[in-house]
DNA sequence: TTGAAAGCGCTAACAT
DNA sequence: ATGTTAGCGCTTTCAA
């Protein structure tokens, strides 16, 4: 097929040994400057590229990192992947992306697949369905580098990178309260996820601060994270069939937010007249929505970058690491029209 | 770090030679059934996984394919990548994704990078800036497998997968005409891209069919493909400053469509009152826009799948291939409110 | 039916 | 300063 030059080819062409060529190419000191120059020039001429596979075999490293996310076609994750790729690329790693589609079984299969491909480390954002994290625990204890981002496993003591979900949720809820709303619902995904619990905590804390009673029936969980419209529609119906129906809602998920809006639209209701909305989303087109969406936006790109930096640092560390950190990045509240700052009558 | 069992470990544990173990694992015939069973059971027990790197080195194949696209965080490409991954995964290939951000220099660097990684083949969608396709021509002539999708290089005789851009553009334009519009503009990206030319042709053909004069000033090119708002705003201004300003527009790009709408909004105009819009986009949230967008949607997932199938077939073909095909998949016109079917007043 | 050995591209310890 | 050799994990001739 498509064959490139090897060290052997160069050695033969120049009448040298492979090790001399290798040394010249790697800038070793124990080599004559003329030989070095000769080799370097020839290598340049024939456009020599070291074979990364041979290097991997030698070094026992694949120079690849595995990524586990729920969905690529999701604005948050596509931006995070962008951040991941940017760092990985510059550090000479390539990235293998796998999708769980929010299924725990799929997630386990993906991790297996990545391990069998001998990735050097794992960047993981848990699926909504995942409860059993013992495989990760096991890998981590064996010294295998894992960094969690966004949907992290709190029980595992390794590097983690997240947005400040508590604070983001708090600000979103407080915005609604300060705009005059008191009957505020909360739509979130699986309770398995720490991000869901953090956001719920931010939500309740804001209510408490402003002396608004917390109503458990105002909180709905969609365990498929907005992947299926029906689940969200059912939640909407339950919310609206209550005696004191909510006037505003804080939604704690990217896909969940867009699916909720689609559901509201389908049921013939209007935002913000029927319900004011603040959602967690990283969609680049949220301002084009009807109405333009008030959102909590996460620094997805930076989260991807930071997680990758930490992972590569762990992979390349000479000595075992015992000190792990949890990086928490600030969210941004973007005011638009789905949550009017002055509640209409 | 994290070490898995090798054939050598198994051989030692069982008192066999590595070749015997290898044969057992690969279901060779020249092996005793008891030995085979013994090996298989032990391998199962210790959860043996062949080292793909060693295999790659042996077979001179990396089992990876390189992907060149302009942007991952673009609904069309994220869906196409989904299709690519689904096929690649099932065929034992992994996928390395690179982004050009519409820069020809970046594209060249990415191809170099992928080649140095010894990918077995390339899946390419050209950047808007690319004019020099000789590197691809060269690789192709050397027998290196390349499949183009979406933004193809017509000059190169290899497999190609595209949507029926001519037909999609024709239908979109005809919809506007049949709704009562006659002053129809066209916004498209770089003329370098065949898809731009195809869509322009579909546009003009629809005008011609309905005896509407083609006005060159109604056609605007944005060479950055909607990546920069300013470029699109300039095009909007030029369009609207004409004596007979257009009443409708057909937009031939994903990012271009959303950026155009953002631009219109920023300039304080209304869709469809100031201008009716039909755009090429695969956004999953186009129906949530204000107004819900009438769109031409491409089968991005299938395009990704088909391209990958063709590529893997080419890679795994024993004999050189001389017959190449261009697969053309139908687009879908989705009627919503940005292009009312009865033109107002 | 099984084993020994070579080789894929590269590096590094060990000669010279 | 340069060459020889072994070895990373695996397959595959060649020999037995």
Automatic annotation (TrEMBL), chains A, B:
Residues 5-59 form the HTH lacI-type domain. This is LacI family transcriptional regulator. Gene3D superfamilies: 3.40.50.2300, lambda repressor-like DNA-binding domains. Signal peptide: none annotated. Keywords: DNA-binding, Transcription, Transcription regulation. SMART domains: HTH_LACI (SM00354). Transmembrane segments: none annotated. InterPro entries: HTH_LacI, LacI/GalR-like_sensor, Lambda_DNA-bd_dom_sf, Peripla_BP_I. The keyword Transcription regulation applies. One of its GO terms (molecular function) is transcription cis-regulatory region binding. It comes from Mucilaginibacter robiniae. Pfam families: LacI, Peripla_BP_3.
């Amino acid at each position: 097929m498509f064959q490139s030059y090897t060290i052997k080819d160069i050695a033969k062409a120049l009448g040298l040994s492979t090790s001399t060529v290798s040394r010249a190419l790697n800038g070793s000191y124990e080599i004559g400057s003329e030989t070095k120059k000769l080799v370097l020039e020839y290598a340049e001429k024939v456009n020599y590229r070291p074979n990364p596979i041979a290097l991997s075999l030698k070094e026992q490293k694949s120079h690849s990192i595995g990524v586990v996310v729920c969905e690529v076609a999701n604005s948050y994750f596509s931006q995070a992947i962008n951040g991941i790729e940017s760092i990985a690329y510059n550090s000479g790693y390539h990235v293998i992306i796998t999708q769980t589609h929010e299924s725990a079984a799929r997630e386990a299969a993906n991790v297996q697949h990545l391990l069998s491909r001998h990735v050097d480390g794992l960047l993981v954002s848990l699926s909504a369905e995942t409860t059993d994290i013992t495989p990760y625990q096991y890998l981590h204890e064996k010294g295998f580098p894992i960094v969690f981002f966004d949907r992290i496993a709190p029980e595992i003591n390794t590097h983690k990178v997240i947005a400040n979900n508590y604070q983001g949720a708090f600000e979103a809820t407080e915005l609604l309260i300060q705009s005059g709303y008191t009957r505020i619902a909360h739509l979130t995904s699986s309770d398995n996820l720490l991000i869901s619990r953090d956001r719920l905590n931010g939500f309740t804390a804001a209510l408490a601060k402003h002396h608004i009673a917390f109503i458990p029936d105002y909180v709905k969980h969609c365990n498929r994270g907005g992947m299926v419209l029906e689940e969200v529609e059912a939640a909407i119906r339950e919310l609206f069939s209550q005696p004191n129906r909510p006037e505003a809602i804080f939604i704690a998920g990217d896909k969940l937010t867009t699916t909720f809006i689609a559901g509201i639209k389908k049921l013939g209701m209007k935002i913000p007249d029927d319900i004011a909305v603040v959602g967690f989303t990283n969609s680049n087109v949220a301002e084009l929505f009807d109405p333009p969406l008030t959102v909590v936006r996460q620094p997805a790109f930076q989260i991807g970058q930071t997680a990758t930096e930490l992972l590569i640092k762990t992979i390349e560390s000479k000595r075992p690491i015992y000190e792990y950190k949890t990086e928490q990045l600030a969210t941004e509240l973007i005011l638009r029209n789905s949550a009017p700052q002055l509640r209409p009558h």
